[in-house]
Amino acid sequence: MTRPWWLSLLLFTILVALVSSTDPVKNEVNVLQSLKSINASNANVKQCVWFAMQEYNKENKDKYVFLVSKILRAQLQITYHMEFLIDVEIVRSNCRKPLSNDVLCNIQQKSKLEKKLNCNFLVGALPWNGKFTVLKKQCDNV
C-alpha cells in the first residue's frame, strides 16, 4: 500500500524541524513546544514508563523488581525529540531479579519488605523509531 504524498511531506518537515532545532554554537536545544500536561493513558507515555522502569530495575541494587503503582503526572516537551517528564509512584514487588516474562508479580504489602518511592523520569523518545533514553531520574522514599 502506498503512503499518501502529504504524509511523507509531513514526516520530512517534522524531521527537518527537529534536526534544525539544535543551536551548535550555543550547544543548547531549542524548545519547539514547552512542557504541556498530557493524559497518562497515552501510548507514548506508557512506552516511556515501561522503558524507564526497565532501566531503573537494571541499575537498582535491590534484589526485588519495582513496579509502577500509579502514574502521578505526565508532561510532554518537544525539542529535537519528544521529552516526557513523568512522575510515578513505584513499589517493591515480590519478584526477585532477574525477572522472567512468565511470572506475575505482586506488590509487597504489610511486610518488612514493603517499600514505596516517588520517581521523576525525563525520557527522551523517538517512539516511531523505538528509541528511548532516560535523560534524568530522581527517586525519593515516600
TrEMBL record:
Q: Which Pfam families match?
A: Cystatin (PF00031)
Highest taxon in the source lineage: Eukaryota
Q: What InterPro entries does this protein map onto?
A: Cystatin_dom (IPR000010), Cystatin_sf (IPR046350), Sperm_Mat_Cystatin (IPR052691)
| Example of a GO MF term | cysteine-type endopeptidase inhibitor activity
Q: Name one GO cellular component term.
A: cell surface
Tell me the protein's name: Cystatin-8
Whichever gene encodes this chain, its name is Cst8
